[in-house]
Amino acid sequence: MTRILIIDDDEAVRSTTKIVLDASGFQTVAVADGKSGIEAVKSEEFDAVIVDLFMPGMNGLDVASAIRKLRPAMPIIAASGFMFGGDDCPEMPNFQEIAAEAGATVVLYKPFRPAQLLNAVRQAIGIAA
User: Fold this and answer.
1) Beta carbons within 10 angstroms of residue 83's beta carbon
2) CA torsion sign, 83 to 84 to 86 to 87?
3) CA 128 distance to own-chain centroid
4) CA–CA gap between residue 12 and residue 20 (Å, rounded)
5) Which CATH number fits domain 3-83+94-128: 3.10.450.710, 1.10.10.10, 3.40.50.2300, 3.40.50.620?
6) What is the 3-state secondary structure (H, E, C) of 14-75?
7) What secondary structure letter does DSSP report for 106?
């Protein structure tokens, strides 16, 4: 059975992603922060990981980089729903570029539909195969 690790600080996104993937025949583990995600990768085997790039504490870029060092061939799906604009971040950065820097295999934009999630996971696993 294909095992997917979900790393996302948003409880609603984390649980919904888990439900969709579990219902589609994947086995999932979901954690709320980067440190827990890295520990999971160290102690368990996964076929792919979904990482929210913008999380408090340890951001997804650092998490993806750490995972890439631990498991160079593991497909990483970079996900984000970070809102750009306003005083904090007036210009939208190149999300594709940020994801590539993080070692992402596939990019997934939030909010995503179940079909988009499943396509991203299948694409990531297919690329790694």
Assistant:
1) 10
2) positive
3) 15
4) 12
5) 3.40.50.2300
6) HHHHHHHHHHCCCEEEEECCHHHHHHHHHHCCCCEEEEECCCCCCCHHHHHHHHHHHCCCCC
7) E
108: closest CA among 75, 84, 85?
Answer: 75
CA distance 59 to 48: 18
Among all chains, which residue has been given the structure tokens 């997804």? 60
Q: Could you tell me the two tokens for 63? A: 């998490």
pLDDT at 128: 44
For residues 27 and 97, what is the distance between their CA atoms, to the nearest angstrom? 30
pLDDT of residue 109: 86
pLDDT digits (tens, 9 = 90+) for 67-77: 999 999 999 99
Number of residues written out for the chain: 129
